Amino acid sequence: MGIKGLTKLLADNAPKAMKEQKFESYFSRKIAIDASMSIYQFLIVVGRSGTEMLTNEAGEVTSHLQGMFTRTIRLLEAGMKPIYVFDGQPPDLKKQELAKRYSKRADATEDLAAAVETGNKEDIEKFSKRTVKVTRQHNEDCKRLLKLMGVPVIEAPSEAEAQCAALCKLGKVYAVASEDMDSLTFGAPRFLRHLMDPSSRKVPVMEFEVAKILEELNLTMDQFIDLCILSGCDYCDSIRGIGGQTALKLIRQHGSIENILENINKERYQIPTDWPYKEARRLFKEPVVVTDEEQLELNWSAPDEEGLITFLVNENGFNSDRVTKAVEKIKAAKNKSSQGRLESFFKPIANTSVPIKRKVCYHKYYKHPILTFRIGHVTFSVEDIL
């Protein structure tokens, strides 16, 4: 679920903290991706029609593999360097939320059976998607695939979003990509939504910067975490009747959940019994994550063509020609991404032994001045570079 209503809250109250970006603008950027969220999207969308899904000859679902393979190649072809982070053991405080999700899937399974019996195609489509669950096998399949593609994989000790945020705070990646907004609550400096959407949707990537969010909302990070808990998160119930806008108003007025609880109208707003907001706050501020440099060594390697053919073609029925062509795309994409971003060529170099001379001359056809500079025996102009 993430943080309930946070996107709209930020759009209404901190619009300068979010901006639309082109997919291609992340060339050469390292991006940490919440793997489980991506796999969930693939299982819902890729090759699905009603209760029918992509499967291999053994009847095993392959939608997650098809989605992960093609979407990762798209990222690589755009020059990005993805790192997929997989969930570990969920914290105890999340067990209540997981139980709710289990119950909803059980209800959806019953509704789906009824829809199939009556032949209601619209309900079949709706309820079949609600029964989707990412299993351990789905995760293991995707880990194996990504490693064969030469893409780094990290197994988080607990929440993947928290580990992604830690990678971003450590400067290991440029941004975090997910659909759950709680990556911001974990303090990810830069967060991307819709990066993993199919190109057919033509939806721009939405980029958020946590520093600008705090500035726009005029809150500290601690206050922003309290705002997210009040709005509704995965770790505890929220106070009924308090949505995002009311939560923001109360945080600005009182500064913390403790002060709000002292001053709130308890007849109007009923506080949940034994409300564990302090534990939820601690999980956001001090999540269980890996920070050791050796464990976070990120390496992108050449694809294992033979291994990919064995896994995708022989074991899962993928088309051999398509896989071979895809491997060539991966190789070409990795060569492309090694070129680096344009701004890296213009970084100042200290203590250079070769003097740089510059002068202003005039264009041979036009009257405007052209800046030129000389490095050693070679002369460049702004016109040459552009």
TrEMBL record:
Residues 29-306 form the 5'-3' exonuclease domain. Pfam families: XPG_I, XPG_N. Its main location: nucleus. One of its GO terms (biological process) is base-excision repair. Binds 2 magnesium ions per subunit. They probably participate in the reaction catalyzed by the enzyme. May bind an additional third magnesium ion after substrate binding. GO terms for molecular function: 5'-3' exonuclease activity; 5'-flap endonuclease activity; DNA binding; magnesium ion binding. The keyword Mitochondrion applies. GO terms for cellular component: mitochondrion; nucleolus; nucleoplasm. Residues 1-108 form the XPG N-terminal domain. This is Flap endonuclease 1. It comes from Tripterygium wilfordii (Thunder God vine).
